Amino acid sequence: MKKFVLASNNAHKLEELRAMLETYGAQVISQRDAGAFIEPEENGATFEENSYLKAKAIMDACGMPTIADDSGLMVDALGGAPGVYSARYGGDANKSDADRVAYLLENLRGVPEDKRGAKFVSVITMLTPDGKKIVARGECAGRILTERFGTSGFGYDPVFYYPDAGCTFAQMSAEEKNRISHRARALQEFVKQAFL
Question: Which residues are catalytic?
Answer without folding.
Answer: 70
